């Protein structure tokens, strides 16, 4: 475990150094992403201006909480594990060979190999939003941090699971993109806008609700049982995603491609 | 006439290319359906809380379906194509061809635009009927003026994106300009009708080109009247003309700065 963390930390340092090498591009993309997120908050502001009160049981403050948690969780996932969305490409093109030859855990090596520049904007945006909406509420910050940590793991695990299907079905890039789209949309809107079937999906197969909507509920009314159940289920999902990837890896056939990792 | 014929050939080839990639078309359909589903669920929840000024539920759902439809029609990737052409130097090969680069790019995107217009149009109609039922007051005779408005919206969007793409001649990283343009069009018409904006912001929105990409054609669609048509179409035509002229001027200036090395 210590060795894996060391490798992850080393890859993070390398990725950050590489990102900082192109400072203007890094800042532009991070700023662009924060701006992009702001447009959705503008939408919600207008919607609540029109109606006031609550939409599907969520106040404007609640929407800011789920937006902040989603933005930072998605950002952290893509700062640390951006390569999860690249797994299909690695499998289909045969570039996975380069990772298999290196003397470290394949999953850690694959997930941490790449970072996303715009994800830093997402990560920072959540904190800015929390600073504006909950600057003096310690409990909100506590559940925000829990949501960000669990959410980043779940975003990565869900993306990895979808792309791992490429080991079994061939090119699963569309399923991967669609899954990402679903988990984002499940996170940034009140969960009660969806019907029971979709709600069941967002707490089971694509369980991002556990990291975004459950922390909000726990902030409103703490329940140790709910907290433990959400934590246990999230960690179990991540472990299963790792096992699914390792099983799939056994079916991988080398592409005989000449590839280098610089 | 002969000049137009060569652009028609380019458009025909681009249409054949667009049709060949059926998986890409299918994936756009899936994403479009997902977006519409999410928006319908959201606005259903919002309308449960109370009425929204000026739009009935059916009108608003059709409005959103139409704005997303225009968004999907406009998805030709012209901004990244322009960026790539300029940064990779591929523009050197394209400007040497016996066709004006700007109109070549437009004709080259026309095939995909037309395919999106037809194929996504059918899907949009089906989704609208499923989620909102027939649009009250809509008559088939509205289609020609509506198509004109959509065509002008597509031209405004295409040429403004091209203008941002051309900025890569002078800016190393023009991604922020693209983000700003995209979000302005989203906020001033795509996600919300201009009528929902605060009263101080509405005249500002109506005096800028961004609202004429999504809001103008969608407003015409859900609440058509000859008076509204007369009010919106000249403004759309004006912004379309402005965008084309700006692109031509910038292109002329940019090509002068172009330096080619190697053989």
TrEMBL record, chain A:
Membrane-crossing residue ranges in chain numbering: 29-48, 60-81, 117-134, 141-161, 200-219, 225-245
InterPro entries: ABC-2_transporter-like (IPR010390)
Keywords linked to the UniProt accession: Membrane, Transmembrane, Transmembrane helix
Protein name: ABC-2 type transport system permease protein
From TrEMBL, chain B:
Keyword entries, A-Z: Membrane, Transmembrane, Transmembrane helix
Regions that span the bilayer: 20-40, 60-80, 101-131, 143-164, 176-194, 227-251
Name of this protein: ABC-2 type transport system permease protein
Organism lineage string: Bacteria, Bacillati, Bacillota, Clostridia, Eubacteriales
């Amino acid at each position: 475990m210590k060795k894996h963390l060391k490798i992850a930390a080393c890859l993070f340092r390398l990725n950050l150094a590489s990102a900082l090498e192109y400072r203007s591009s890094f800042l532009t993309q991070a700023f662009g992403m924060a701006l992009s997120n702001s447009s959705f908050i503008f939408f919600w502001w207008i919607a609540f201006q029109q109606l006031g009160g609550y939409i599907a049981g969520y106040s404007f403050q609640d929407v800011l909480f789920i937006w902040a948690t989603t933005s930072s969780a998605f950002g952290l996932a893509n700062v640390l594990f951006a390569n999860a969305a690249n797994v299909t490409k690695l499998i289909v093109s045969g570039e996975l060979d380069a990772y298999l030859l290196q003397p470290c855990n394949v999953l850690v090596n694959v997930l941490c190999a790449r970072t996303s520049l715009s994800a830093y904007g997402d990560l920072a945006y959540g904190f800015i939003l929390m600073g504006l909406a909950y600057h003096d509420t310690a409990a909100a910050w506590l559940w925000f941090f829990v949501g960000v940590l669990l959410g980043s793991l779940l975003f990565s695990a869900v993306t990895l699971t979808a792309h791992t299907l490429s080991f079994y079905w061939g090119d699963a890039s569309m399923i991967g993109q669609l899954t990402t789209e679903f988990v984002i949309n499940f996170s940034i809107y009140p969960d009660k806008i969806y019907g029971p079937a979709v709600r069941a999906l967002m707490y089971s197969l694509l369980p991002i609700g556990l990291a975004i909507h459950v922390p909000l509920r726990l902030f409103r009314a703490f329940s140790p049982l709910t907290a433990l159940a959400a934590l246990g289920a999230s960690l179990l999902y991540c472990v299963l995603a790792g096992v699914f990837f390792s099983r799939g890896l056994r079916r991988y056939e080398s592409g005989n491609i000449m590839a280098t990792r610089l | 006439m002969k000049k137009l014929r060569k652009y028609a050939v380019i458009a025909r080839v681009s249409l054949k290319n667009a049709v060949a990639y059926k998986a890409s078309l299918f994936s756009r359909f899936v994403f479009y359906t997902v977006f519409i589903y999410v928006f319908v669920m959201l606005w259903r929840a919002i309308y449960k809380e109370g009425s929204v000024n000026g739009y009935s539920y059916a009108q608003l759902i059709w409005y959103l379906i139409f704005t997303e439809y225009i968004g999907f029609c406009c998805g030709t990737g012209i901004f990244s194509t322009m960026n790539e052409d300029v940064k990779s130097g591929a523009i050197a090969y394209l400007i040497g061809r016996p066709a004006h680069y700007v109109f070549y790019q437009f004709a080259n995107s026309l095939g995909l635009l037309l395919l999106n217009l037809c194929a996504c149009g059918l899907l949009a109609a089906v989704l609208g009927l499923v989620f909102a039922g027939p649009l009250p007051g809509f008559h088939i005779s509205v289609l020609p003026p509506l198509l004109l408005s959509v065509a002008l919206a597509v031209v405004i969007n295409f040429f403004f994106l091209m203008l941002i793409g051309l900025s890569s001649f002078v800016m190393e990283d023009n991604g922020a300009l693209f983000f700003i343009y995209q979000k302005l069009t989203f906020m001033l018409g795509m996600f919300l009708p201009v009528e929902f904006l605060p009263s101080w912001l509405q005249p500002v929105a109506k005096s800028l080109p961004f609202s004429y990409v999504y809001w103008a054609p969608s407003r015409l669609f859900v609440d058509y009247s000859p008076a509204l048509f007369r009010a919106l179409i000249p403004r759309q035509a004006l912004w379309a003309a402005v965008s084309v002229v700006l692109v031509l001027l910038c292109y002329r200036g940019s090509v002068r700065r172009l330096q080619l090395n190697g053989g």
